[in-house]
Every structure is written in structure tokens, then in C-alpha cells.
Amino acid sequence: MTEYYNPEFLFLTQEDVIAAGALDMKAAQDDIELAYKLFSSGQINQPHKPVFQFDNPETGEKRQYLAVSMPVYVGGSVNRIGHKWAAESLDNAKRGDMPMGIDIILLHNLEYAIPDAIMEAGLITAMRTSAVAGVGAKVLANPDSKVAGLVGAGVIGRTMIMSLTAAMRKLEEIRLFDLNKSRAQELATEFEGQVRVVVVDSVEAAFKDADIVTTQTTARQPFVEDRWIPKGSYYAHMAAYEGKDEVFLNTDRLVVDNWGTLKTWDFFSATRLQKEGKLDEAGITDIGKILLGEAPGRQSRDERILFANLGMGCLDITMAERIYQTAKAKGLGKKLSLWEKPLWI
Question: Which option is the CATH number for 8-124+313-337: 3.40.630.10, 3.40.718.10, 3.40.50.150, 3.30.1780.10?
């Protein structure tokens, strides 16, 4: 009589993911640094991720809905193939009853061709997104940076404060701007006793004389003026539409997460400028090369460095693998099965 294998896998809710260490920013930064090094040393197989964009059929508003598929194999010590499905709805953000981004990660078992785990990944996205900026700051910002200017007080604004304070120990003040001032005030209050967060009235005020500047917004049109970017600053550009063309053209150095993918995205400013012959891709550096010591980090105090990134699936899978292993060790999550007995073999 045939013994059927019961393919159980672990399902992790957001609460399980938290209990398994998703909110540990230092661990997230370690995950991101490892993933970047593996990617730039050729140990990751990561196809260019397709981005599905949908306009609002009633209002015509651009990029109202978004879905992104990110399959990836991460080698090295991670040794995991997985898939992240990321979706966004601006309707969610407007209603305020759900997160704007709803993400799921599947970690795959090659031997049995089944999932090992399926987990809620919204927090993984939020943590790794800002962890990226912190990892970049360690090699691209002046090490004695004291003031940061942040634009955007949403979910990524929160994790950005966590990331920069974890990465830059000498940081004394964060200036925060958001179109929704009350939301910015609430976030500033949340970090009382941890770091001084000052709510300001404009992007220009947030950036004035800052050592580090970041933008993490849902903007659909560029809004950051080149004249606002301080000399010697590190600018973490976290979304597709934030810096105007001059910001990219006048930076001393442009660093990215993965130029191979970014140059396939026509909606990204640097890609368009490169195709127009205004930006030389020979001067664009992947962050992993810097972390491996194959390209220089910051070379002078006055150097103005722009780190533009739109996310890579290998970052999520690396972080998800740590969370999965921790969840197993702690007995977290719920075991689910695909069937009681397969109908056909």
C-alpha cells in the first residue's frame, strides 16, 4: 500500500512574524548587507521583476494599483528559493482601514516541490526598505552625521527613523516633514526619549544643512529640487518619483541597488536620463560592490551621494529565511496541508 507524503507547511501571520524577530532593525540590516554581497558576488539568481501598474478607471489617476512579482534564488549561507508577491492600492491609503501595501512571501522546498512557509510580508517589506537606507548610510554618509531630514511620515517614515538611528550612532536630530502634519506629530511623539524628532513645514526646511536626507513617499510626480540637497549629504531616494532630473544629474555619485533591473524601468528618472544620453551609466555603482570592497564608498566630506533603490526580492527572501528559521525554533505559526490524500499521482 502506498504511503502518501503529507506536505505540511508553516503559515505565519503578521503576529507570528513579529514574534520571530521582524522588528529587529539591526538583524534586518545584517540581512540586507548579506543579500547585497551575495547578489554582487554572483550568488543570487534574480530575474528582472515585472511590475503591473493600473490607473484608476474612474479618475484616471496614475499608478492607483500596483502588483509586483519577485521570484529569486538566494545562494550562499541562505540557500533558499522563494517568491514575494507585493501589491499596493492607493484606495487603502485613502480609506485608512488597511495598509497600502499587502505583501506575501513563499519559501519553497526544492526536494518536495512544496512550500516550506507562507508568511505575511508587509512588515518585512517595511523593515527591509528602510534597512537598505541604513546599510547605505554606513558607507555613503559622513560617519559623524548628526542631522537627518526625512520626508514622509507613513510606515516607511517610522522604519526609516529606526534604521538611521541604528546605523548612525552620532545622529542627534531628525527633521520630519509630511503633508499630513498631524501624522508627522504623532510619529515624532512615538520616538520621544529615543531621538529628537522635529516636525517642520516644508521639504526645504527638513533638508536645510542636513547630513542625511531621505524621501519615502507615494508621490506620483518628482518634487525634490536640486537646490535643496546639501553639499556633502547622503540622500536615500526610496521611491520612483521624488527627485527631479537635476537631482540625479548634479549628484557627485549615483549608487543604486541593482542597475541591471533599474535600467529596464522606463518610469524611473535615472533610466530615462541614461537613455536620453544625459547620464553615463559607467558612473553608476551597485551598493553591493561597495560593501564587498570592490568599489569605493564615500571619498570626501563634500561629496554629494544619491542612493536610489526600488527594492530587490533577494532582500525579502534573505530576511524571510531568518524569520522562518526562528519561527520553527520557537514553535510559532500554524501548520497547514495541501491535501489529505492526493487525487492523482
Answer: 3.30.1780.10
